[in-house]
UniProtKB/TrEMBL annotation:
Name recorded for this polypeptide: DEAD-box ATP-dependent RNA helicase CshB
InterPro entries: DEAD/DEAH_box_helicase_dom, DEAD_box_RNA_helicase, Helicase_ATP-bd, Helicase_C-like, P-loop_NTPase
A Pfam family that the UniProt record links to this protein: DEAD
Species, as recorded: Candidatus Hepatoplasma crinochetorum Av
Broad enzyme group: hydrolase
EC number: 3.6.4.13
Record GO cellular component, one term: cytosol
Length: 367
């Protein structure tokens, strides 16, 4: 594995003395442009795993887009953009993150048609191609991150349609990443894109033992059960994420906590505009918030090392999302987070399914 000198300088600046296992495995496959499915636990370095071989292979001194990275949310676009900004201090390459200001960027010609890497959702990059086409003759890589969420959004077919429109003649490497990438989804992707892909599955090897504290809902009142937990003597929060399924439920929890005099609290959902979501994202990074109430939108791919508590106000509709929720904490050796699940009798069967699919999880009844 030979890494460019300037890319090594970036790794040294971030104190990456040794690449993580997923990064080594992905590097060996993508550097020779093979197709790939990569399933690895949340917080194990998947983002850098695909960025390293791409940045190592692209030809910085030549024009033309060589990599497209597709993600399901605007928040992940901004996170990737920030990571590339750090790396770019050492490599000096061009990239373009397609944001909500797409029409303005096109009108004012404020985007780089010669970017080496484009980061986008499939909706935005498809819109750009219709309004102001970019040449992809030099394209080498298409990465789809959080692919199971993209599949839930019914966007895999949209990606295939976009790829077909490009009429790419050269050999492009397709790679798909997630902490939950099951065999039936892999089969669906191979059939849809007419590819064969190598598989990296590090879940069983890298998953940590995680304790889930079960709290039975009292008097069929989730809100009151939540308040009792937050006010208990054992609860000493630094940064708490409270997950709920629906945006209206998130707002309801937020209002209830405010009415009970909780401070430094925000809520985060798809109902908020992009500017407000970005503001909250920044406040979390700057440690201005103690309590964040959110939908599963926030459970995907966002990297924060300061989460002290995860509270599952309810179980996700797609039980695979539970793994992404609880992966928001225990990402740092310095901060061991606690995870709670509020449940009632109707949740018992779902909890059993989660137990059977995730042998690294231990459930303990607190109440």
């Amino acid at each position: 594995m030979k890494i460019k000198i300037n890319l090594n300088k970036y790794l040294e600046s971030e104190k990456f003395n040794n690449l993580l296992e997923v990064q080594k495995d992905v590097f060996s496959i993508l550097e020779v442009k093979n197709n790939l499915f990569c399933q690895s636990p949340t917080g194990t370095g998947k983002t850098l795993a695909y960025l390293l071989p791409i940045l190592n292979q692209i030809e910085m001194d030549k024009k033309g887009v060589e990599a497209i990275i597709l993600v399901p949310t605007n928040e992940l676009i901004h996170q990737l953009k920030n990571q590339l900004l750090k790396i770019n201090k050492y490599l000096n390459f061009s990239y373009f993150a397609i944001t909500k200001n797409l029409d303005y960027d096109i009108e004012k010609n404020k985007y780089n048609k010669e970017a080496k890497i484009i980061i986008s959702t499939i909706d935005k990059i498809s819109s750009l191609q219709k309004k102001s086409p970019i040449s992809y003759k030099k394209l080498k890589y298409i990465v789809v991150d959080e692919v199971d969420m993209i599949d839930n959004f019914k966007q895999l077919e949209q990606i295939k349609k976009f790829v077909d429109i490009l009429k790419i003649k050269n050999n492009v490497s397709f790679s798909f990443f997630s902490a939950t990438l099951e065999k039936n989804l892999q089969n669906k992707i191979e059939k849809l894109f007419k590819i064969k892909a190598k598989v990296i599955n590090l879940n069983s090897k890298l998953e940590k033992k995680i304790n889930i504290n079960l709290i039975k809902i009292l008097n069929n009142d989730r809100l009151e059960t939540l308040i009792n937990l937050l006010k208990s003597n054992q609860f000493n929060p630094f940064f708490v994420i409270i997950f709920a399924n629906k945006s209206k439920e998130v707002k309801k929890i937020y209002d209830y906590l405010i009415s009970n005099n909780f401070k430094d609290i925000r809520y985060f959902s798809a109902d908020l505009n992009i500017r407000k979501r970005k503001q909250i994202f920044t406040e979390v990074r700057n440690q201005k918030i103690i309590y964040l109430v959110t939908t599963d939108l926030y459970a995907r791919g966002l990297d924060f090392n300061n989460v002290s508590h995860i509270i599952n106000y309810d179980l996700p509709v797609d039980l695979n999302y539970f793994k992404h929720r609880i992966g928001r904490t225990n990402r740092s050796e310095d901060l061991k987070g606690k995870i709670y699940l509020l449940y009632n009798q109707n949740d018992q069967e779902k909890i059993k399914i989660i137990k059977n699919k995730n042998k690294n999880l231990t459930f303990k009844n607190l109440i």
